[in-house]
Specification:
Elements: H1 2-20, H2 25-28, H3 41-60, H4 66-77, H5 82-105, H6 114-125, H7 130-140, H8 145-160, H9 165-178, H10 182-197, H11 202-216, H12 220-235
Helix pairs in contact: 3-5, 4-5, 5-6, 5-7, 6-8, 7-9, 8-9, 8-10, 9-11, 10-11, 10-12, 11-12
Amino acid sequence: MRRHFVSYCLFFLLVFLSFCRPGSADENFSSLFGQSDFYQAEDREYLERRVGEIIKEVEQENLPSDPLILKLKEGIRKEVLPYNLVKTLENKKEAMLQAKKVMEKANLEADNHQKLLLDLALSLEMSIPPEIIEEALQETIGNNGEKAKAVADSLVALLELGITPDQASGIIQKTVSQNPKVENIENLTRLVEQARREGIDPTRTAAVIEESLSKYGRNFNLVEMEVNRFIADAKSKPAIQSGQGAVTTTTGVSSPSTPVHEGGGPLESTPSSPGAPPTQEGATPLD
């Protein structure tokens, strides 16, 4: 009798929890379009259908939909054309799916490393080739989530500082293959930030780091000494002081020159002709 009572209690508890469970993003995002008068009825219909499909695909892969909702809110706030907004969400979705595959190849579960997943997705959105990330994760990291996170964080940070994708992936690869300690990987960003504060072009600093890694191999202390010497020498030379190659990085989504915008590629707002129907995939962006 007691066993039956416990079973009934568990059953009713599960029923209660199922009713209390918050709605999915798929159920809630459509209300966001009502917050803007920019989108016509046909635009909203198109966006609700396509955004719903994108979010459903992400959730079916057990990936978080919050980054998509944040990007959607950003696009609505900036009054981005429907086609452009959907294209941006598609790109973010594809980057997340690709990041999941990269993590699986490195024996890292996306469910247990969501921050890493989003960092890798952001790196992919910023034009880091997936094979570069795969090689960096697999070569010396294996299933070490801490080092994998350091690699992803450093890639994103270097790109934000103005380093080109080729340079960023090159120095990350050399570091993880020769000096795979977490602190060494993280120090790459610190060195570039230090130079940038002195008004030195980040791409020049990256070139010095890459050259030093080739020269000194596994001795990262010598790499740091070489870069610090470069910074000290450059400070006294006006040719590479502030205004001569320094890159200004601002967090946010308003400036088209900003390397990173709220989780990925920039969203550009463009006025839409009143009543213009939404453009379908593969067509020209709405005017």
